[in-house]
Design brief:
about 500 residues; mainly alpha; two-stranded antiparallel ribbon; about 65% helix; about 5% strand
């Protein structure tokens, strides 16, 4: 008896896994069918009815299966109604829940029909397995190709909608408690890189919100509050810890000191500049003045005008560029103050820090400000450099962008930016570039979107977005979930000071 139960459990489990994952994969590859409903709720419902029918098929005798076939469906629908009524965050409609099992039934019927045909081919043809695997591969490639074409065809028509949906997605991930922001970053990379990635995520989202406010002025009021919340997240002790850990002192409590802290201070200053630019609010004026005064003093105290991100490490040019961006933005807001420092740095960069082989800004400098020998320029760093330079010197940025594109851009079915221009790397892993596949740098390709958009290089921008659809696909929130994330505020001087922030409050 026990053996029979174990065998039945194994059979049921295998049936659930087989049919559930088939439905998940097919649904992923056909966004034009499910539109806005590829979410956790849909996956839960699919698992629910698949499990009910798998159990039903195993425990009901064969001669009675068809007679009681609707029974699991009624149980499923009753549970789905309860979930819709009781779960406040449940994100699918009753009608959608009602019709979803039809998708599962179609998948099962088609799979059964295809299975019979495949068995016939295998029996009649010596190369049946090869034909079968080839046909399955072509089937999935075809589905993916249709999916990519579908999303790309909607790109121009829904650009504003798409931008705002992506904004809402990122806000939902980052407007949370500071520890939760850090937890969004992979734990495997360690505390330092978790802090770095969290800082960059908040900083870049803040810059995006400032840009969106200019593109769509009706979003400005909300974006001001979002940037305010992001600034407070970055000022929290949890986010500051990665920098405190490396410099053995808190970056905000040592502004009168001489240690660099350039990575943390520059991103925070840039975020505040964006807040000031679109709001006109003087809330952070005193802090911004202190941050920029400190960075300017520390930069000018160095003969080469560069500051290390961490003690004992190389100077990372993208990190330094953020400080120059922040000083330039501050100059725009304060009658040109610190503009001389910006011009000095750009002049030195054009004269001394261009790579001899490529003409691009080097990715790293030695601690004394001199170039390394035989250290390659990285595509991911160069793309980020081009993006930051658009905020500082448009002519220099355009020169760098054109050079980068001529050396690192790879056209093809999957277009993108290579991580290395002078060597082949089909598969690799880099903490900054990400997993390198077919020579392409995921981070570099994504970073290049900024400069491509700025210089109106629409073909390159569209190629990048198409590559993104090939690598994954766009998932939009369902229509029933149209509200923006709750705006929150944090007391930067405490670890857990989160409270709801009412619109209009400071």
């Amino acid at each position: 008896m026990l053996d029979d139960i174990i065998v039945e459990s194994i059979v049921i489990t295998w049936r659930i896994c087989r049919w559930f994952f088939l439905q998940i994969i097919l649904m992923y590859l056909m966004p034009y069918l499910w539109a806005d409903h590829y979410n956790g709720e849909t996956i839960c419902l699919m698992l629910l009815y698949t499990t009910l029918y798998a159990i039903y098929w195993e425990i009901v005798p064969k001669d009675k299966r068809l007679r009681w076939l609707p029974l699991p469906y009624f149980v499923y629908f009753g549970i789905s109604i309860l979930l819709c009524e009781l779960a406040k965050t449940w994100d699918v409609s009753v009608w959608y829940s009602f019709s979803l099992p039809l998708y599962g039934a179609i998948c099962v019927i088609l799979a059964k029909i295809c299975g019979k045909q495949i068995r016939r081919i295998r029996k009649k043809n010596r190369f049946g397995k090869v034909i079968t695997y080839t046909a399955v591969l072509l089937f999935f490639v075809t589905l993916k190709s249709i999916s990519v074409s579908w999303e790309c065809s909607k790109r121009n028509a829904f650009e504003k909608e798409d931008i705002l949906e992506r904004k809402d997605y990122l806000l939902d991930k980052l407007l949370v408690n500071p520890p939760d922001v850090l937890n969004e970053m992979p734990a495997a990379i360690g505390a330092q890189f978790q802090g770095e990635w969290a800082l960059y995520s908040c900083s870049m989202l803040s810059a995006a919100l400032a840009n969106i406010s200019q593109l769509y002025p009706e979003t400005k009021a909300g974006n001001i509050q979002y940037i305010d919340s992001l600034i407070n997240i970055v000022m929290s002790p949890e986010l500051r810890y990665y920098d405190t850990m490396r410099w053995y002192e808190d970056p905000l409590e040592s502004l009168d000191g001489d240690e660099s802290h350039v990575s943390y201070l520059s991103h925070l200053a840039w975020m505040i500049c964006g807040y000031k630019q679109i709001s006109g609010d003087s809330k952070y004026d005193k802090l911004l003045s202190s941050l920029c005064r400190t960075m300017n003093r520390r930069i000018l105290n160095q003969k080469d005008l560069n500051l290390p991100t961490y003690p004992g490490e190389a100077i990372y040019i993208p990190d330094m560029l953020v400080s120059i961006v922040a000083l330039n933005q501050y100059a725009n807001l304060n009658k040109g103050k610190y503009r001389d420092t910006v011009r000095k740095w750009v002049k030195r960069a054009q004269k001394e820090w261009l790579d001899d082989k490529t003409g691009l800004l080097v990715s790293f400098l030695q601690e004394n400000g001199t170039q390394y020998e035989d250290v390659p320029v990285k595509g991911s760093y160069s793309a980020l450099n081009c993006y930051y330079l658009t905020f500082i010197d448009e002519t220099f940025a355009k020169q760098q962008y054109d050079t980068l594109k001529s050396l690192f851009w790879k056209d093809g079915t999957i277009s993108g930016l290579k991580e290395y221009y002078d060597r082949t790397c089909y598969v690799g892993l880099d903490i900054d570039a990400g997993p390198i596949l077919f020579e392409l740098s995921p981070s570099g390709t994504a970073f290049m979107t900024g400069a491509a958009t700025y210089f109106n290089d629409l073909k390159t921008r569209n190629d990048i977005l198409t590559t993104g659809e090939i690598a994954g696909h766009t998932v939009r929130p369902s229509p029933t979930c149209g509200s923006l994330p709750e705006i929150r505020s944090v007391d930067a001087g405490r670890s857990h000071g989160w409270n709801a922030l009412r619109p209009g409050s400071s």
